[in-house]
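Narrative progress, year one. The postdoctoral researcher (J.K.) led the effort to move from monomer predictions toward full complexes, under supervision of the PI. The following entry was the first complex the group processed end to end, covering 586 residues in total.
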Amino acid sequence: MRTRKSARAAQYVALLAYLVFLAFPFLWLISTAFKPAKELGSLDPTWIPKDPTLQNFRQAFDEQPLLQAGLNSLLVALSAALVAVVIATPMAYVMARHQSRLSKAATGWVVVSQAFPFVLIIIPLFLILKNLHLINALPGLVLVYVVWSLPFALWMLVGYVRAVPAELEEAAAVDGAGRMRTFVSVVAPLLAPGVVATAMFAFITAWNEFFFALVLLKTPEKQTLPVILNRFIGTEGVADLGPLAAAAFLATIPSLVIFSIIQKRITGGMLAGAVKS
Amino acid sequence: MTLATATKSRRSAKSGPPRKPVDHGAWFLVLPALIPILVLSVGPLLYGIALSFTDAQSGRTEPTQWIGLLNFQDLLHDTLFWDSFRIGLLWAVGVTVPQFFLALGLALLLNQNLRFRWLARALAIIPWAMPEVVVGIMWRLVYHPDAGVLNETLSNLGLGEGRDWLTGTATALFAVIVVGIWAGMPQTTVALLAGLQNTPKELHEAAAMDGAGAWRRFRTVTWPAIKPVALAISALNFIWNFNSFALVYVLTQGGPGGRTRLPMLFAYEEAFRYGQFGYAAAMGCVMVAVISVILAFYLVGRLKGGDAS
């Protein structure tokens, strides 16, 4: 009995250690965001700002085109998420319902596409988009994000389609509904929550993405939030810590909010995928 | 072939005659996603592999020419690239292995009936949701020599003077590896937790009845059940880490003196700072090839080991 109790205690200590490790950088970011310049310059930083201020946030908006960057990010992420689920849902449906060679090839592609370094994709994409005059243009980035989020979107959606009983469709077919009709009026409503979760995940992926945006967007008025945030750091790595932290904190909020909404579904989706594979 | 697959599929019971139109319908559903995948993913990949056999450069007026294996021959003697490759392997192993054990520990804890489990689950997700650039900025603040919390804590504990973690040649790689571990914890933990929740409870209870200790129960019941997930996630993590870019780019830009210059950072500079498209594409090919070989050995070895035990 005593060993069990001490084991429990050890478990709580371990859990606490994990909590500290996972949370402290984020808390420090928040703390820095609210510290006045004077405190940031002191050699004895504290966890809780002695004299909390919103000055950093104002300064962040003054120094860099954060508002424009936020709008760019929003536009790109929304479009990419929307297009991705609109084209991925029908394909996921076919992949889940038919064990054809096509589905096998598509599943194989989902796996293989994870292994290739982006540099092998980005150079040709850069050249293709340049020919289409889509360099330094948001539609070009949307295209890239759609394709980039497809593997995971397909993977999630296939799991959700499998969760819809095939008997329902067979019943609809017996009633004389065609494939399209069955999909639109029987499958789609049941899939809706999964599709929304997938769209949200694609949104976060695009909102957070840095590498493609760095390569494809050249001028500050076109750049997305992560690229603008990186400009904050500057070439010498000497940054105004307060505004930097404030901007970084703001850029995280949309992702955190959406992620907390879909967290259960994401982990559920991974669970489904894990069971299947 | 189509007939055979159609009869095999479970929908065959329902509609006999209209088989052909059904297939047309399937294509109609598949094409909207298939075309972008072919044009913007499969196509560029093949194009990229082809580029590695050319002298393609950015902004050049002369036509690009096939140069055979010249890029690969140059690469073979490019010591800077192989330094970077070695750093990439160190980073990928240094992140993947400790992260796996840390995540396994956390997943086992979260699978227990502990209080505050919900809080840990919520916090464990934070790194996943954050933009990588923000993760980089955040850890720059933590590591900051003057205003950072790490040096402050160390000096408060009497553990010596502060360091310049990210710019010191001795500490930089270690410092970015810690960030890499932190950033990838959620995916790994969630995957392992999913595996744990599929472990048959009855087996656990039976083993406990037979007097098996915690370690034996883990070895004989839990591990076999989560092994497929563990293999998959660690292989994926290794690939992702080896190909990662944003985190280290924001933290150190590959410095100091190339100590944290991962292969992706090297290839990025080669392609978009120096405009050597063909050469950078060749680097990409070498990265894929070496990673595939390593993974093949890892997976084959692991699966064989599983059969033996």
